[in-house]
Design goal:
This is Transglutaminase-like domain-containing protein. The chain is an alpha+beta fold. The protein folds into two domains: 214 residues, Roll (C8orf32 fold); 68 residues, no CATH class. The chain contains eight helices and 14 strands. A five-stranded antiparallel sheet has the order 11-12-10-9-14. Strand 11 and strand 12 form a beta hairpin. Helix 5 runs antiparallel to helix 7.
C-alpha cells in the first residue's frame, strides 16, 4: 500500500483591482515546505481564454444538427426526408418516405455522413472531441489538450511566477514537482461520468484558478497548460483511466515509479488531483491495476 500525506493549501486570495485580477496562494510543497506565489492577469477576457466553456449534451448537439441536416436534404433535392429528435433529443432519427430501396440506402448513407461531419464541426467549435476508452466505448469530452494549449495566454503570468521560483537551472522534473504540489492542493471536486455527463463540472485552467476548485480532468488540464508553457519541448500526455485522469511526462521513470508507454518511450505518471500528496511517479493504489492492465487511453501534446 502507498504511504501518502495530505496536500494543504492554507491561503488563497483573488482580488479585482484597476481592471486586473490579483491571485495569491500559500501551500505546502512535496517536501512539506511552505510556498507562496502570486500573479496578476487582465480582468477582461481572462475567463473567456480560450473559451467560455459550457457543457455540451447529446440533445444540444442534435438540436444544432437538425436544421442543417434538413437544409442538406433540401439542397440535395430530397423532399421526403423526415428528421426527428426522440427521447428529448438524446438521439436523432432519420426516415426516408419514398424512393427505391437502392435510392433510400444511398441517401441514408449521405445523410449519415453529413450528420457525422456536422457533429464533428459542432464539437470542434465547442472545444470537444471524441473519446474512445480502453473498452471501446465511444462518447465525447472536452478537448483537454487543445484547451490546455490555447490556455497559455491565461496561465502565462503564473507560469512565469513559477519560473522565477525555480531559477534558470531547473529541470523539467523540478518544474513538474513544484507545479504538481501546487495543483494537488487546489480543492477537489468529484468528476462527473464522462459518458453520461460529458463536460459537466469541467473548468478551463482560467476558470479553475478563478474558482480555486476543480475535478481531475480540470486539474490535469491546468497542469498540462502550465508544464507545456514552461517546457514546450518536453512531450507530455493526458492519461484517461476509468473515472479518472492523470498527467504523464517524457521523463525517464525511476525503478519504483509508475509509467505508461507511448511511441516506444516510457512516460512518468503523475497524480495532480489531490488531496493526497503524491510525488511524480506515484499514484493511488486504486489506479495501479488500471495502469498494469492497460485500462487507459492517452492523448499527446
Amino acid at each position: 500500500m502507498s504511504s501518502v500525506s495530505w496536500a494543504e493549501q492554507f491561503f488563497f486570495q483573488r482580488q479585482a483591482e484597476n481592471s486586473q485580477l490579483n491571485f495569491a496562494y500559500q501551500w505546502r510543497d512535496l517536501d512539506n515546505h511552505s510556498r507562496q506565489i502570486s500573479f496578476q492577469v487582465p480582468q477582461t477576457g481572462f475567463l473567456q481564454t480560450p473559451v467560455n466553456f459550457r457543457p455540451l449534451s447529446p440533445a444540444r448537439i442534435h438540436r444544432e444538427i437538425k436544421p442543417d441536416l434538413r437544409s442538406f436534404a433540401h439542397d440535395s433535392g430530397w423532399r421526403d426526408v423526415e428528421i426527428n429528435l426522440p427521447h428529448g433529443g438524446e438521439s436523432i432519427e432519420i426516415n426516408l418516405r419514398s424512393g427505391t430501396a437502392g435510392q433510400r440506402q444511398q441517401r441514408m448513407q449521405a445523410l449519415l455522413t453529413e450528420k457525422e461531419r456536422l457533429q464533428q464541426e459542432i464539437m470542434h467549435r465547442n472545444y470537444y472531441n471524441l473519446l474512445v476508452d480502453h473498452a471501446r466505448r465511444q462518447g465525447f469530452k472536452p478537448d483537454h489538450v487543445r484547451i490546455a494549449e490555447e490556455s497559455h495566454p491565461a496561465v502565462q503570468s503564473l507560469a512565469e511566477a513559477f519560473a522565477n521560483k525555480l531559477g534558470e537551472d531547473s529541470s523539467p522534473y523540478d518544474s513538474l514537482r513544484l507545479i504538481l504540489s501546487f495543483v494537488q492542493t487546489i480543492p477537489y471536486a468529484e468528476l462527473d461520468n464522462r459518458f453520461s455527463s460529458p463536460g459537466a463540472g469541467f473548468h478551463t485552467p482560467a476558470r479553475l484558478l478563478f474558482e480555486n476548485r476543480g475535478d481531475c480532468d480540470s486539474k490535469v488540464t491546468l497542469i498540462a497548460a502550465l508544464f507545456s508553457a514552461l517546457h514546450p519541448q518536453t512531450e507530455s500526455l493526458i492519461v484517461y483511466l476509468p473515472g479518472h485522469a492523470m498527467f504523464a511526462v517524457d521523463i525517464e521513470p525511476g525503478e519504483d515509479d509508475y509509467w505508461v508507454r507511448h511511441d516506444e518511450r516510457r512516460f512518468l505518471l503523475t497524480e495532480p488531483t489531490g488531496p493526497a500528496r503524491f510525488e511524480p511517479g506515484r499514484i493511488g493504489d486504486r489506479y495501479v491495476p488500471h495502469v498494469y492492465n492497460g485500462a487507459l487511453v492517452v492523448e499527446a501534446f
